[in-house]
Structures are given as C-alpha cells and as structure tokens.
C-alpha cells in the first residue's frame, strides 16, 4: 500500500452475493474498486454475524488490491493473527471493543498489517487524539455498526473535519463507513475523508453476470466525491 489522499472507493462485500464472493470481488475490482472492504461481525459487539478468517482467506486470491478488514468484534486481540494470516492488508478494530486499544493497535502492526481504528457515531473524536501515532487509518462510522443499508448520520461530518485537522500531515487515511452514496460522498470528501466504503450503493442493480452497474455506481460515487475537493 502506498499512501495517498486520492479518493478510494471500497465496496463492502456485505452487500455482495454471498454464494459468489470470489466472482464478486473480481467483478468490483474490474469495475473500478480501489479496495475490497470486509465487514466482520460477531453477534456480540454488534447485532449481526457475518464472516471469519476462513472467508477472508478464501477470497484473498480473488483480490488483486487492498483487502480492508473491519473487525466489529469483541474481544479483538485473540483474532488478529488469524485475520493477518488470512491476508488482510488493513485490520481495523473498534475503540469501543476493549479496554486496551493501544495494545490492540500494536498487535495489528506487529502481525504485519496496517492498523485501523474504528469509532462509533457516539464516540467523541477526542478519544482518538492520543492514538494517532499508532494508526494508519481511522474509520469514522456514519451509521451504527451492525447492518448494511442504513441512513447516513450527518452529525459525523463535523467529526471528520475535526479529525482531519487533528491528523495534520501524518500519513493516516480517513475512512467513512455507512450510508455512502453520490449524495453523501462529497460531504465527507470535503471534510477530509479519502476512503469511502459503500455497500448497497455499489452493488445495487448489478450482479456477477451483469457487473456494469457496479462500475457505473463506483464512478458516480467517485465523481461526486472528487468534485467536492
């Protein structure tokens, strides 16, 4: 991974066809996706269950670019090596998932992955300040984690802007996860975000057999975000 603040679109496979993950990953990359986002949920930290390390390992050969793994699980530390071993390029853990997030971020980097820090909508951005030198990415949740297809929470735009100022010239990505569409993408891009996770907004209207809508959706989100810069 080479750091850049250029807009990156990271489709979430939470909205993909679960029976065709490999083909879906190939399709979204062929249609312009920069990263592939994997939402891992445990039914404990969030009210849904999705994937584990075995799924990540299975789709890794189908992904040419960045596999971005978002761990919505608690506890986190005991699973870091498994997800790193499954090929995750970025592993994001929630600040709210445990009492020792500094140690968790150390463990992610120690496992050879880029360290991401995710924060829920109700978490103040000040909680991130003393962790910035430990992270490569901050994921600002613009919905409450647990399910795809939720409406964007507009109060988080100010949080993104304050985070961008806090980061300064550090090489840290700002990722947005939740409710990203061509309408909301320019709002967060203008505030300083550079990685936009989109699920239903990317996959709507398309399929493995007909992937061209994926490309059109990705292009629309990217164009709207870039127009705000």
Overall pLDDT score: 97
Tell me the major beta sheet: 8 strands, parallel
How many strand elements? 8
Shape: globular
Q: Give the assembly state of these chains.
A: single chain
Number of DSSP helical runs = 8
List the uncertain runs: none
- Share of helical residues: 25-40%
Distance between the termini: 23 Å
Walk across the major sheet and give the strand order: 1-8-7-6-5-4-3-2
List SSEs in N-to-C order.
Answer: EHEHEHEHEEHEHEHH
* Radius of gyration using CA atoms only: 16 Å
- Which structural class best describes the helix and strand composition? alpha/beta
Strand portion: 15-25%
Architecture overview:
This protein is an alpha/beta fold. The chain has 8 helices and 8 strands, in the order βαβαβαβαββαβαβαα. It has helices at residues 21-30, 53-59, 80-85, 101-110, 156-167, 185-191, 200-203, 212-227, and strands at residues 8-11, 35-41, 66-72, 90-94, 114-119, 137-141, 173-177, 195-198. An 8-stranded parallel sheet has the order 1-8-7-6-5-4-3-2. Helix 5 (156-167) links the parallel strand 6 (137-141) and strand 7. Helix 5 runs parallel beside helix 6 and helix 6 packs across helix 8 (212-227). The model has no long low-confidence stretch (mean pLDDT 97).
Summarize the structure.
With 229 residues, the protein is an alpha/beta fold.
Defining traits:
8-stranded parallel β-sheet, 19% strand, 229 residues, globular
């Amino acid at each position: 991974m080479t750091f850049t603040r250029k807009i990156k679109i990271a489709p979430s496979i939470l909205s993909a066809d679960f029976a065709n993950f490999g083909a879906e990953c190939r399709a979204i990359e062929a249609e312009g996706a920069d990263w592939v986002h994997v939402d891992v949920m445990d039914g404990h930290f969030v009210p849904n269950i999705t994937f584990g390390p075995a799924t990540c390992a299975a789709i890794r050969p189908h992904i040419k670019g960045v596999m971005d793994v978002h761990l919505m699980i608690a506890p986190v530390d005991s699973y870091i090596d498994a997800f790193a071993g499954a090929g995750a390029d970025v592993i994001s853990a929630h600040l709210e998932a445990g009492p020792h997030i500094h140690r968790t971020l150390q463990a992610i980097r120690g496992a050879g992955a880029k360290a991401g820090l995710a924060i829920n909508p109700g978490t103040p951005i000040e909680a991130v300040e003393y962790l910035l030198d430990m992270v490569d990415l901050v994921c600002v949740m613009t919905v409450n984690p647990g399910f795809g297809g939720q409406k964007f929470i507009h109060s988080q735009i100010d949080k993104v802007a304050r985070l961008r100022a806090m980061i300064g010239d550090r090489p840290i990505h700002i990722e947005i996860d939740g409710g990203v569409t061509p309408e909301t993408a320019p709002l967060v891009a203008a505030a300083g975000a550079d990685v936009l996770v989109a699920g239903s907004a990317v996959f709507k209207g398309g399929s493995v057999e007909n992937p061209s809508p994926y490309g059109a959706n990705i292009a629309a989100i990217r164009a709207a975000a870039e127009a705000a810069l």
